[in-house]
Write a structure and sequence with these properties.
There is one protein chain. By secondary structure, the protein is an alpha/beta fold. The chain has one domain: Metallo-dependent phosphatases (Purple Acid Phosphatase, chain A, domain 2). The chain is built from 2 helices and 5 strands, in the order βαβαβββ. The strands form 2 sheets. A 3-stranded parallel sheet has the order 1-2-3, covered by helices on one side. The radius of gyration is 12 Å and the shape is globular. About 15% of the residues are buried. The C terminus is likely disordered.
């Protein structure tokens, strides 16, 4: 079984209980409102991180996109802020 951690709206803060969940994740999806590059760097330390921008992610986020996708096998799931996602 694949463990995917999905989070959003961290607004510059990763709580200890969230870090514990991230430590066991195969993949991490952050769906916006990160607010700082430090959070992006922390997420990438845990492994593969798929990150999209939220409405609060501004000038610091050059190079990041408002959409991305997770591909597992022959299926790709699109990710964007405020999207409903179904992972199969």
């Amino acid at each position: 079984m694949i463990h995917i951690a999905i989070l959003s709206n961290t607004h510059g803060l990763l709580r200890e209980r969230v870090k514990a969940e991230l430590a066991g994740a195969d993949d991490i999806i952050h769906a916006g409102d990160i607010n700082t590059t430090a959070i992006v760097e922390m997420l990438r330390e845990y492994g593969t991180a798929y990150i999209v921008l939220g409405n609060n992610d501004k000038a610091w986020a050059d190079g990041l996109s408002s959409t991305t996708g997770v591909k597992k096998g022959n299926k790709k799931t699109p990710i964007r802020e405020s999207a409903r996602m179904v992972l199969n």
